[in-house]
Amino acid sequence: MAWLVLGQGIKLVVDQGFVAGDESMLFNSLLLVLVIAFIGSIATYCRFYLMVWLGERVCADIRKALFSHLVTLSPSFFAESRTGEVISRFTSDTTLLQSVVGTGVSMALRSFVMFVGALVLMAITSTTLTLYVFIAVPIILLPIKLLGKKVRYFAKVSQDDVASMGTLIDESLHEIHTLQSYNHEDQSVESFDASAEQIMQSASKRIHYRALLIAMIMFISLSSIFIVAWVGALDVISGAITPGELAAFVFYAVLAGASIATISEVIGDLQKAAGASERIVELMNTSSDIPIGSTFPDATLAPFEPIEKQPLNVNIKGFRVNEQALVDANKPILTLHNIGFSYPSVPEKQIIHEVSFSVMPGQKVAIVGHSGAGKSTLFDLLMRFYDIDYGEILIGDSAQKTISTYDIRRQFALVPQDAVIFATTVLDNIRLSNTTATKEEVIEAAKLAFAHEFILDFVDGYETQLGERGVKLSGGQKQRIAIARAILAKRPILLLDEATSALDASSEKYVKQALDSLMTKTTTLIIAHRLSTVINADNIIVLEKGKVIGQGKHAELMAASPVYKEFVELQLS
Ligand SMILES: Nc1ncnc2c1ncn2[C@@H]1O[C@H](COP(=O)(O)OP(=O)(O)OP(=O)(O)O)[C@@H](O)[C@H]1O
Question: Residue limits of the ABC transmembrane type-1 domain (predicted)?
């Protein structure tokens, strides 16, 4: 509004100072114009600050919403989408929205007020001249309509290309070890260059259409202003309007023209942002194929206690179902009844066929079978990362499908084959499974996992930063951290995927001791690769192509199952 008032100042300067030759009036007008400019600048500061702040806020809120949605999605979503692409939604797409809200909308708002104000003041100054301007407006809007669509389309294409590049960077840098060991750097650089050029190509198309849009609008609006100024100059000569009025009118016409140009540019930006938000919304609307489940929809089922009330020392005989009842030591803690499963991405390939077995509280059950037999898949099914196609899984007496995923998962402590370490301190890595644990409890768990000694050897002890993916640890150390994590979780059922990677004899000894100390406390299901693990198991399940082809103790299976016998002989040899 201050800039609009400036037009009136100009009128005063021209008519009463300049044309009338009044010096003191000229000076007063200058003062007035300076004050208006000062007010306008302060207003600009406020507008800029508030709008850019708002842009950042919107961006932060979208990122927060997106992340909290993503962590609820099931593994099948991540199996099908590429992480780099998802990361690009966070970075480039939200940044685009941020700049549109922060800068674009702010400029559009200013331009809109200016445009309307300028039109009103133009009409007051000269109605006829304003009518001429009105004829020009639809001509300006035409290219916006025609070219805007193209801009939007190519904006989406180039954002997609940026996302693919994100995937490429993510994969290459995470797996840099493998790439370098096979001297694959040049090929990686080649694919990256191709990806960067692809972005450049789609961007140039977008830029071309946008540049064309801006140029056309500029040409049409400037030509209109010149024509109107010419008509106005004729009016001044004929005495219909004063020179000051013409000056103010041209000033307003330029303001209005510039505002329209800005608005059209922002519309281009908005179209680009629409592409980005479409992709964000798409991601937000992906729902997990595993319902998180409200806790205990069926009131007749004995509810598990809320986690705060869960006693830290879980009874090895089973887990608490509610305050009154511990699971009966004579009843299975886990029952798989005739289950079948195929991955949602490959529904035609059945991975698990009619598997049935049960696990008693405190038992140590080993699962053996060839690579690809479906052992890890069974673990995923127990924790309900996927839903089974048929059959039933019972946890205690409750059907797995009737329990919330939160409650299912807090019955299990998983030690995966490849221990996962996060880029944080040793303390936080262990505490991941039980965030309320004290440092003393963490140390106790680390001692039980035979990790305490090597942790103390680090300069910063438990506060040592482990680096991305635990690059600062050896294989055996990583495993012991993962075991300490599982001990600290104090969960009733331990799922253990025995590492196949060879550790040196002393590491192996430590890891084995750590595992033994963990297994005595809980019910354990272990995917076994070593004879020493299976020999003492209470029950051994032999899995072959997703089917249970034998179960029993070591001696029974040696006599009854050729596959098991082969496993044992391989171990012995
Ligand atoms: N996300 C997935 N989507 C589709 N198929 C999968 C997926 N994960 C595993 N599979 C397939 O399921 C089968 C069983 O895999 P699983 O990982 O359970 O085997 P495993 O017995 O644990 O093998 P290993 O001992 O080598 O780890 C394999 O044929 C594998 O190709």
Answer: 1-272
